[in-house]
Amino acid sequence: MTQRPRLTPDQLRSRWWFDNADHPGTTALCIERYLNYGVTLDELTSGKPIIGIAQSGSDLTPCNRHHIELVKRVKDGIRAAGGVPFEFPLHPIHENVRRPTAALDRNLAYLGLVEVLHGYPLDGVVLTTGCDKTTPACLMAAATVNIPAIVLSGGPMLNGWRGNERVGSGTIIWELRKRLAAGDIDYAEFLARASDSAPSVGHCNTMGTASTMNSMAEALGMSLPGSAMIPGPYKERAMVAYDTGERAVEMVWQDLRPLDILTREAFENAVVVCSALGGSSNAPIHVNAIARHAGVALDNDDWQRLGHRIPLLANVMPAGAYLGEEFHRAGGVPAVQHELLERGLLHGDVTGVDGRRLADSIAGRETQDEEVIRRFDNPLVEHAGFLNLKGNLFDSALMKTSVISPDFRRRFLENPDDPDAFEGRVVVFDGSEDYHARIDDPELGIDASTILIMRGAGPVGHPGGAEVVNMQPPEALIRQGIESLPCLGDGRQSGTSGSPSILNASPEAATGGPLALVQTGDRLRVDLGRCEVRLLVDDDEITQRRQRLDAQGGYPYPAHQTPWQEIQRTLIEPLDRGMTLRGADAYRDVARQ
Ligand code: FES
Ligand code: MG
Predict the structure, then answer these.
(1) Which one of 58, 93, 96, 496 would you pick to mutate in the ligand 1 pocket, going by the greatest count of ligand atoms within 8 A of its CB?
(2) pTM to 2 decimals?
(3) 431: which of 145, 257, 349, 390 lies 20 to 30 Å off by Cα?
(4) Ligand 1, closest atom to CA 95?
(5) 374-397 in b/e burial notation, b at 16+ Cβ within 10 A?
(6) Burial profile 305-338: b = 16 or more Cβ within 10 angstroms, e = fewer
(7) Residue ranges of the alpha helices (H) in 481-562?
(8) Is residue 132 lining ligand 1, measured as CB closer than 6 Å?
(9) What is the atom index within ligand 1 of the atom nearest the CA of 94?
(10) Per UniProt, what is one GO molecular function of this protein (predicted)?
(11) ipTM exceeding 0.95, yes/no
């Protein structure tokens, strides 16, 4: 990366607002109200960088709430480096609670943050992240606006425990739901055990979407090396908050901007790291979205090409056995990068927010615990990335291969005549309410070879896209020991789920995707060797079904509940294109416009 000349104080962006002799009236209006709580005239006009802090924590977003404390250290760092901190709120996003889904808020928070960063006197920004969508929303906005920006994750919660067993966020819920369905535990026990997984401040302690996306921020070079996975309550977390604030000021002087960091090579690095982490199936959606806003071509074929062959090195739930604390102590993201870089699988020349080459930043930071962060020669799974499946039902759908269990492999993928392929009768559900209402209906004839299909769960069908594709089998099958069936759908699934579903199918049923034409009783063939899924129904029959559906006005979806749901539905791109807003990626580097 070619370095730009250091800025001089009169080149600061904030000077237009705070020291603009051509518009004295405007300057006076901008300045006077900041003085009303004690900011001094000198702070605003003597050429100190003004550093925004996008505060994602609030009582509504408990995963990020300790940023309210952490930003005190960020501000200390900013002041020590000669900057002035201005904290402001990010639209709250809480993954578990937001109805109908937190995915509605990613693009809304993005839009809001773009307007703040563009419209206010900020020279740089610290982006506080944590819960799933807070991280991509911030990175998308940083790419669009392109003022110096640095990510500070809140870090995962401490490990959850029951006795001497680790209890992981989200992962335990999927487990307990099966125990409840099988009648092993009651509702009170369910709630008590679920709360074991959340012992402290911080985001999910598994390698769900939150840990994955904060690790992606670090792998992209947008946060300080080693910072993503420091547990929320650790003292190092507050220390790195200070360092992040300090660094934000220096980035302004160096004029080191997000689009200098978010290069094609950086995205390729992120894809490779994601596989080695056993990262969330939501990562391709969000990382593709960040790439679109950065003007970098990245699609699900890239994820398969670059990522599928990469081995699983992080022994962290849901793909592995440990949680965030062990992962951090074993060396965190730099230890994983170290292993991959040694094998020539990463670009070592990319520059991160620390202003250094990746290869220099992670030098000597190898794994400190080879059980938790594996050596390349001793992985948990040989090929851990995503397969990008295609066929006559969709253009793209992903399967996370790191979580294919030995049981699933034995039951579906070890037919000697036809390895890596299986066929089955499908049972179709239209959205998660339909699934819950009918899954235990014996009339459906679900057995150990059935393939469950979920549709109406994409970003238009269920505004924002529902995390519902990982469907559990009927209770009767679970009692017989069949704990999973192949699932396929146009929705997403939680990053904490250990299910190898075929998900994010695009285009979705609600926008005319052929998934709308499938009927219960059809047969489906899944061939992982060929990366193909085919509905085994002849073309004439498909054509007739299409005509009938068109005559009914297409696949139905529920009414909009809010203005934003309507706006987003009319503008949203499919999941394989990152569910960005159509046209938004045409805006780039807007800080200079
Ligand atoms: Fe917020 Fe998992 S629910 S991080
Ligand atoms: Mg989720």
Answers:
(1) 96
(2) 0.97
(3) 390
(4) 3
(5) beeeebbbebbbbbbbbbebbbbb
(6) ebbbebbbbbbbbbbbebbbbbbbbbbbbbbbbb
(7) 539-551
(8) yes
(9) 1
(10) dihydroxy-acid dehydratase activity
(11) no
